[in-house]
C-alpha cells in the first residue's frame, strides 16, 4: 500500500480546517497527522522541527514543508487543479484571485485580531488595511456580487474564505451580514465542505476519547 505524498498536520479546531476542505475538493490522496492542542503536541520538539511557530495548517509534500494558509491554498490549487480551482496565469481572473488571497492574509486576519483585542486603529496612512470596518465592508460588498468571491466562478479562494468566515462569524468576530451568511451557507453545502466536516467530527471524537483516557 503506497503512502500518500501529502501529509496535513491538522486539528479541526484550527485554521487547518480550510486546508482539509481544499484537499477534499481537489480529490487528492493525503494523510492526516492529528495535532492535539490539549496535550501540547503542537509544541513538541518533533513538530517544532517542522514548523517552528507551532502553528497549523502545516503541509508536507514529498518532503517539502509548506505553511501559512494562503501559501497552502495557492500551492495546492496550482499543483493539483491549475485552470480549475486556480485561474491559470493568463486567465483574467488570476489577478483578482491572487488579490483576495493576499487580502485575506495581509488585511482580513490582522484587522480581526485588532478588533478581537479591542486595539485602537492606527492612522489610516500607516495601516496596510486601513481599519476593521473598512475591511468588513469590502468583504461584504464583494460577496454581495456573488454567488462566489469572483462572481460565478468557484475557486480555491472560496475554500479559504468560506471556512474562515464560518469560523469567525461563529465566534462573533465578523458580523452576520446577509451577504456573508448567504455565502457561508452556499459554501457549507458543497460536497467537499460536507465531507471534511464529517471527517473532522470523527477526528474530534477520537481526540476527545484519547484525552479522556489519558
Structure, explained:
The longest helix has 23 residues, at 94-116. Strands 2-1-3-4 form a four-stranded mixed sheet, with helices on one face. It has eight helices and four strands; from the N terminus they run βαβαββαααααα. The two termini are 31 Å apart. It has helices spanning 16-26, 45-50, 69-81, 94-116, 132-144, 156-170, 178-188, 191-213; strands spanning 6-10, 30-34, 58-61, 64-67. A hairpin with a 2-residue loop joins strand 3 and strand 4 (64-67). By secondary structure, it is of the alpha+beta class. Residues 3-84 form the GST N-terminal domain. Keywords: Transferase. InterPro entries: Glutathione-S-Trfase_C_sf, Glutathione_S-Trfase, Glutathione_S-Trfase_N, Thioredoxin-like_sf.
Amino acid at each position: 500500500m503506497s503512502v500518500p505524498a501529502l501529509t496535513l498536520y491538522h486539528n479541526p479546531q484550527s485554521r487547518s480546517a480550510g486546508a482539509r476542505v481544499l484537499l477534499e475538493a481537489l480529490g487528492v490522496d493525503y494523510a492526516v497527522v492529528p495535532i492535539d492542542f490539549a496535550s501540547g503536541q503542537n509544541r513538541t520538539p518533533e513538530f517544532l522541527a517542522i514548523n517552528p511557530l507551532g502553528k497549523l495548517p502545516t503541509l508536507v509534500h514529498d518532503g517539502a514543508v509548506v505553511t501559512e494558509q494562503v501559501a497552502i491554498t495557492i500551492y495546492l490549487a496550482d499543483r493539483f487543479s491549475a485552470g480549475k480551482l486556480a485561474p491559470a496565469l493568463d486567465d483574467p481572473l488570476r489577478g483578482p484571485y491572487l488579490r483576495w488571497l493576499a487580502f485575506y492574509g495581509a488585511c482580513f486576519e490582522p484587522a480581526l485580531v485588532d478588533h478581537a483585542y479591542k486595539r485602537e486603529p492606527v492612522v489610516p496612512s500607516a495601516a496596510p488595511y486601513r481599519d476593521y470596518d473598512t475591511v468588513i465592508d469590502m468583504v461584504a460588498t464583494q460577496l454581495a456580487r456573488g454567488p462566489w468571491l469572483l462572481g460565478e466562478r468557484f475557486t480555491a479562494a472560496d475554500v479559504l474564505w468560506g471556512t474562515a468566515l464560518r469560523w469567525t462569524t461563529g465566534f462573533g468576530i465578523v458580523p452576520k451580514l446577509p451577504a456573508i451568511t448567504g455565502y457561508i451557507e452556499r459554501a457549507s453545502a458543497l460536497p467537499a465542505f460536507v465531507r471534511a466536516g464529517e471527517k473532522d467530527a470523527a477526528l474530534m471524537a477520537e481526540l476527545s476519547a484519547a484525552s479522556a483516557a489519558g
